[in-house]
Amino acid sequence: MANLMNEFPDIEIKQDEPLMNYTYTHTGGPADWLAFPETVDQVKQLVDYVRDHDMSLTVLGNASNLIVGDGGIDDLTIILTRLNKIEVHDNKVTAQAGASYIDTTRMARDNNLTGLEFAAGIPGSIGGAIFMNAGAYGGETKNVVTDATVMLPDGTIEHLSNKELDFGYRHSSIQENKGVVLDATFTLEPGDYDEIKAKMDDLNERREAKQPLDLPSCGSVFKRPEGYYAGKLIHDAGLQGYTSGGAQVSTKHAGFIVNIDHGTAADYVNVIRHVQKTVKEKFGVDLETEVRIIGRQD
């Protein structure tokens, strides 16, 4: 394989870079190659290169809702956090994929636009929010997104409407078409700054009171099973505090797994599997992971 640093001298690229330096869990082995594109053209160069060289491509944003295997990730990984421009035109906010959802909600607030308050504490990027249809406190990304700009694996760029994004619970069409989200546009409503800020502050206070934000975690681990709440099932199964290696079911919120002592991805996966097995045995409910588990698991 060619040296990508020589192939793309204008793009910052690192070889065998530990992904634990970038993930919210503080776990993850090395990426064969890790690139930090700063423009859409640089993203296209990288997408074209991996296609032409039959390489795999992994796209990350804030790496807040995923677990990267201890063996790392093959071929090329790109982190989009340097594509982070946010613009406001009338009642529309357009944010690039690497912009943080939190910064986007603040931009909306500062321009007296309401509709994004639910996302005030979601730690992911805009690209991740589109990919997963991120949501919290009764709100979902699908309810405010008009369209997204996506680069498909063949290098073409398409503007996908809300309908074409095929949003569902923690789902979008990006998961099937393997595209790279470049930006998204949110259509909001005029509102009062003080009211918007008060709602955002309230939701953030509730989040801080309930969630273990003081420890590394991958956010909400499990999808909500129909008719149940994952956290309550885990709590009722007596699993809070269950630990494998350095990963532990949070004693503050049972829906979170936290890194308490140099935990590894394997530790996280062990805890997840134990929780799934125990909840199935006790309540007959299958817990499906919301968190993405990617990379080599060795």
Automatic annotation (TrEMBL):
It is an enzyme of class 1 (oxidoreductase). Coiled coil: none annotated. Its EC number is 1.3.1.98. One of its GO terms (biological process) is peptidoglycan biosynthetic process. It catalyses: UDP-N-acetyl-alpha-D-muramate + NADP(+) = UDP-N-acetyl-3-O-(1-carboxyvinyl)-alpha-D-glucosamine + NADPH + H(+). Residues 26-191 form the FAD-binding PCMH-type domain. This is UDP-N-acetylenolpyruvoylglucosamine reductase. It comes from Limosilactobacillus rudii.
